[in-house]
Amino acid sequence: MLTTRCLEMVVDSMLTLLDAPAVPGLTFRCFRGEEDYPAMVAVIAGSKVADQLERTDSVDDIARNYRHLTNSDPYQDMLFAEVNGQVIGYSRVWWQQALDGARFYEHFAMLLPEWRGKGIRHAMLRHNESRLREIAAAHQTTDASTGVQAQCYFRSQGADTERDWEALLVSEGYEPVRHEFNMVRPNLEDIPDLPLPAGLEVRPVQPEHQWTIWQASAEAFQDEWAAVETRDEWFEAFQESPTFQPELWQVAWDGDQVAGMVHNFINEQENSEYDRKRGYTEGICVRRPWRRRGLARALIARSFQVLKDRGMIEVALGVDTENPNGALRLYESLGFRPVKRHTIFRKPLD
Questions:
Q1: Are strands 103-111 and 86-97 parallel, antiparallel or unpaired?
Q2: 4-173, superfamily in CATH?
Q3: Is 13's pLDDT higher than 90?
């Protein structure tokens, strides 16, 4: 259902942005529903070469993702930029509650490369911040029990190849606070033979165990930097994804307790577009009682063999470069090497 605010935007397609540049034919509007999905895919496709991003988004992918948005109403929280009625970019905002009490007001703004450098993306960023301030104004910022004021931040991120977006964030006062690597092991030769710790076993994932495994993963990742509250809707979205492939997972059990796991998957669409045979070893985690026993290393080695048996010749993953459990060193020791860096930027919400 359209809100009053958004109905006004639809009726008056000329949504005015205070910082909008004087570009002939440029207008802004809000989200119109599923009819916008093809235009969103076109903006992604038109940007990925310039930004050196490997993306294969389809209309179905967008539809699936937008069915499961949390803390974001696209009818109020999206902005579309058009020139003479053609979509040239779009943005969206949302927020997340961190487990340590901080709150992150997140956003992105995508714009086709040929329209960059004209001030359009700058205006979209400023609009994002304005909308996020509206959202934040409705939130309780002081803990009723402790009287402690919550730390609130604008937050966004970009790859090191997204130079236009990163430069814009820095120019607007955002500071880099954390880095992540995309890493690749370029072959599946010399797979180490690593036994599981004593008392643990890997079992095929049964449908009735998937929720238990998801909950164990959510618990394990609570120790990550800036961890946020896990939402049940994320599991539903995960189940609908083409990369939800529990038959490839490696999950270690200690009796009836999940000790650790790797959520392996193969992205067939990506492999087809980029002419490769790559598998992913993602969702790597070990719960606290089973850490420091070599479990993650053993599960990753098993994952290599599983993916090799499916015809893959390389593997990839993402990692927080400052992971407190030494994940980066572990992955490097298993043959992974960085191929791209992502940076998380933030600035205080004033």
A1: antiparallel
A2: Gcn5-related N-acetyltransferase (GNAT) (3.40.630.30)
A3: no
